[in-house]
Fold:
Amino acid sequence: MTIGVIGLGLIGGSMAVDLRRRGFADRILGVENDPLHAEAALRIGLADKVVGLDECVEQSDIVVVAVPVGTAVHLVGDILDRFDAAGAADKVVIDTCSTKEEISLATRFHPARRQFVATHPMAGTEYSGPWAAMSGLFDGRACIIADHEESSPKALKAVEELYNVLNMRLIYMSSSSHDVHTAYVSHISHVTSFALALTVLDKEKDEKHIFDLASGGFSSTVRLAKSNADMWEPILIQNRDNVLKVIDTYIEKMRLFRDAIEDFDGPGIRSLIEDANKIKKIIR
Structure:
């Protein structure tokens, strides 16, 4: 099995590491436009060879598109064009993007659509680049497979086997449902972390005070603010409508806290906190 990985960063690089170590891939071909990243990926051992897109698609059994969603929407279609032109009916392409509806719409009527499986392995850190790749990143985490009925049974089976090797829990849903759910459980977390970082940086012009006073709670809350803008700008644009709804709800809840604090309303503050504590039944 030859796996082509387009984008040897945190997600693509971590997949490459474990797919090779766990015996799923005999060879990893990488595609990386950044020369520094390409050199680092080879030195770290994420790929056997860094090649151009043509060679990667031609020689790979499964092509993993692990680039920002703005690029992935067009790239998956380009790869499917190459599959179709070459009559390569056995090849499969997957994406790993955090939004699914736009890429689904872009590929829906492609002649080779059934060779594409839309996926979202829900794992990651705030770091990026080949240096961030690690073994075990996906173990025990959820992976969404979106619109699975639009993929061929053979392509779907190959991708299920790939994610089983990565020890991921597979969840199936429509692309539109995926984007709603990720707006609530992922995208709003990043927006609030970005906003909190901006708030603190605006107040504390002397950064030394931030690091001197920062506790574990602050660090864990603002950790996501270190996430890469190249990745998150297109995610928030593509999932705009869902993210705006979640932001509006979040602002409403912040207003409840603000009003209770402004009014010295101890019981009101306690009630809001205790209602929020119910999340312990879901997240342990």
Remarks:
- The radius of gyration is 21 Å.
- The chain has a mean pLDDT of 94.
